[in-house]
Amino acid sequence: MPNPATQSSARTFARRPATFTGFVRREGTELVDGDGRPLLLRGVGLGNWLLPEGYMWRFGPGAESPREIEALVERLVGASDAEAFWRGFRDRYVTEHDIAAIADLGFDHVRLPINARVVQDAAGRPIEGGYALIDRLIDWCRDHRLWVLLDLHGAPGGQTGTNIDDSPNNLPELFMEERYRRQTIELWRELARRYRDEPVVLGYDLLNEPLPNEWQHRYADELAELYRDLTAAIREIDQRHLVMYEGSHWATNWSIFTDVWDENSALQFHKYWSPADVASIAPFLEARERLGLPIYMGEGGEHNLEWLYAAFRLYEAHGIGWNLWPWKKLDTLTSPASVVAPERWDDVIASIGGESRLTRDEARAVFDELLDAIAIDRCILRPEVVAAVTGDRPVVIPAWAYGFDGAGESFGGAAEPTGDPAVDRALDSALDPAVANLRAGDRVALRFATHGPHPDNPFEHRAGGPFRADERIVVDLAPGEWLVFDLGGETDAAEYTPLGPDREPVPATIERVARGIRVTADAAMTLAWIVADGAEYPLVALDDHEHAHSA
């Protein structure tokens, strides 16, 4: 039966239907649809479906990669029942109901992570059952007006050497063994042969996050050469689909992109757990300008509502389409859909590193329960996550996430530049933020909310909860100073209250303007958040001391 939390969380978002009259393509530094209309993509990633990732199951070391997860399931339930489980998992984890829900939430595309082992056998031959899953997804997306970006998340041999790519030996053997290179090229040839005439396919994302850490330097030339060879192989068959290239080191190192390799291409970066400001994406903006290619944020999220709002407004302010990662996982606050874990799931987790806590029959029952739980109508929906990334009536907005259009547009009322370098340096010094490496150059008085030591990076991973006390950032405003927060047209300023660090209202006027909401200080005050009426988001995380005294 449907989860009642799913029903009570229902909320309406404006749909953004894809168009299939032609192919998505590059036009200068923009992506356009088949009719030439510019696109600012908003999508979600279908992670965990064709390439399971341990953290999405709440697993840790010993069950992080697809091979490790498969081994755990087989050990707990036996080979025959494990095979049946995986058939059921692939049939139920992403269904047409998921695709309909994604479209209804206002997204226009999905990014499909593909594990090579699902569509190609060890000899390099196609696996028709795997392609049938992709074909079925494309049919659903056609019916619900979503594009599909094909993402090779796990290449033959592995392109990262980590758990996220299913590498057999925890090495990026794609760049070490010629047979894996040949198989990867053949895999993309096969994808191009099958989908060259399919306008529902948005494009080809050639490799997910290749060569992180030390490998980014060792095999940089080999990565560039492989990208060129993959492009040539695809273009022998398909001249119309967009090709996307990701940088190395989790798609953040773009040093290999010195030339345009294909006229119908785009560059992709990923962004996690870092400041949401212009400096953090400056290398990608520079590459767009230098090469004249579109850029796309193909994977990001896994944080709290405050960071999600800030980061995704940053992308859109700079004309960058995006994809939220991922659509669904177990017991999450950071994805649009949260799977409720089975009752004895902790016993499965406890069985990873040692003897099973479950009999075979008990384990089989738990995994059968999981197959029922992953249905979207059994999940808890998180519309507040969608609201944060779209900027459509978000429940909380941090003060430091004002807009990115500069003085006079996103902030004002402070002393304006005089043109005299000495005077302007003094003004900048007076407003120099006390938060290193965040929004440097803005004439806005940012600071940490508390005294004492603060982390070098206050934006480290948060599993959906608020920032700790030593991470919270506020803005001091003098009378008449104002900030504008970028928001969708349906957002009503009357439904929001500006709060200070003590979570009490501050003396400010809040009003709707063309870009979103403007907050103007009526008296000297410190702004910490703007909060929607009735919001249930906990603004302050309890630290260990507070936990100890509130238990």
Automatic annotation (TrEMBL):
GO annotation, biological process: cellulose catabolic process
Keyword Hydrolase found: yes
Gene3D superfamilies listed in its UniProt record: Glycosidases
Keywords assigned: Carbohydrate metabolism, Cellulose degradation, Glycosidase, Hydrolase, Polysaccharide degradation
Domain Glycoside hydrolase family: 93-328
PROSITE patterns named among the record's database cross-references: GLYCOSYL_HYDROL_F5
Classification via InterPro entries: GH (IPR017853), Glyco_hydro_5 (IPR001547), Glyco_hydro_5_CS (IPR018087), Glycosyl_hydrolase_5 (IPR050386)
Similarity comment: Belongs to the glycosyl hydrolase 5 (cellulase A) family.
Family annotation (PANTHER family): ENDOGLUCANASE, PUTATIVE (AFU_ORTHOLOGUE AFUA_5G01830)-RELATED, GLUCAN ENDO-1,6-BETA-GLUCOSIDASE B
Protein name: Endoglucanase
